[in-house]
Amino acid sequence: MAHRRREHDYDFDVPWQLIDGEMARAPQDGVDSEQHKNRRNQGIQKRSIRHYRHATGRWGAALESFKPIWFAIAISTGGLGLILASPFPYSAPWQLRLASVLYVFEIVLFTLFCVLTLARWIIYPHVAVRRALSDPDELCSYAIPPIVLLTISALTATQVSTTAWGGHAFTLIAYVLWWIGMFWMFATGVVVVVTCIYTGNQMDRSMTPVLFMAPVGLATAGVEAGNIANNAFELSARLAIPMIVVAYFVVGTALFVGIILYTLFFHRLLAAGLNPPAQRAGLFILIGAAGQLSSAFQILGSAAATYFGQYKPQATSATFWEEQTGNGFDYASLLFGVLLLGFDYFTLCLAVVGIADVFIKKQFSYTLTWWSVVFPTVTLVTAWLQLGKSMDSPAFRGLTAALYMLVVVVYLLNWVGTIKGIVTGDLIWAKSELQREDGMLKKARDMEKAGESEEV
């Protein structure tokens, strides 16, 4: 009984400013939401992690601290492979072989990170839930794994179904993977947004671009649907049309959610300035939303022009499924793609200014956030690739090739930083949840003593 009382001595009320430091520093004016006003002076009763399974050693703490941001390495790898597998300018046979290598490497990375993520949630479920609910960046990063699955589905269609030993069977595998990834991505986006609303820990002054991963993922579903429809071996119109129509649905969701988030984030920039240096690389995620939407509209428009004329439901007089309708979708999608591409360059300039500021002020330190530079820029390359194909423009094809080589350089530099961080342990070793909670407990008690001394 005494032991039980000692355990409960570790339970405590946590002031909200220890959960969200930005809330404590925010001025108490009319700018904050009512939710934040109500919570600022309240505490939340926290049950000690000692009551649940938690890490007691160094490796356990590393597993507790494993975050889904690691999946950004996998989507960057797959994104580079998809560009090489597309009608890349100045293509050569070695590019397709390299795309196959990147495809296999992405599957290996995805499998490894999935195993670690599942192990974390199975072994330390309470730690995983606590960190997801208290850290908006970690919560929003859970939109990355389904993006990886979507890129794998597209590479399966382009790299395997088109081979002599692959064929239609792998077209069906890619098709099924896409539907799984699309539903996974949509469900994740809903859960992320609803959880951010419910917890109230996403303040506009401290908002980071990681929240944009939800519309980026939904737009990616549209891009990969177009890739599968345009490149898979012997995909029938009966299979392609439902995928194309649903892809337009999710792209529409991504478009309007993206507009809302762009509005909120630009208000955040005007009200509070750029993000801290450690988060600055995340500004490139702004490129990913508009860039992937531009690519999605262009690729889906091409797929609609190909398949609408081939699809005609039996015993119906519907005039929608006509070649002219597909061409209309293609032209309209191209217009949307060009408009979004223009806005994408505006966000690119903003991201470059933010990154340049970090290096000029010598505030650079390597974290996994720097992988945010690769995949969003890949979406920009994809948009230019589709536009160069539609316009048959040598200038756009040259720009696509040059930008792709720049992304490859950034990709390799990120691998240098990641390997170095793994070797030194900076990216692996971290405080356990117990150590973090003990520090929070000490701060809460110090604040309580300080309040009592002020009353005296």
Describe the structure.
The protein has 456 residues and is mainly α. The protein has a single domain (50-429), classed as Voltage-dependent anion channel (Glycosyltransferase, Alpha/alpha barrel), CATH 1.50.10.150. The protein contains 18 helices and 2 strands. It has helices spanning 2-8, 16-19, 21-25, 34-40, 58-64, 71-85, 93-123, 125-134, 136-141, 144-159, 168-199, 213-231, 237-272, 285-307, 323-360, 374-391, 394-424, 433-455, and strands spanning 12-15, 43-46. A two-stranded antiparallel ribbon has the order 1-2. The two termini are 35 Å apart. Residues 1-5 and 20-31 have low confidence and may be disordered.
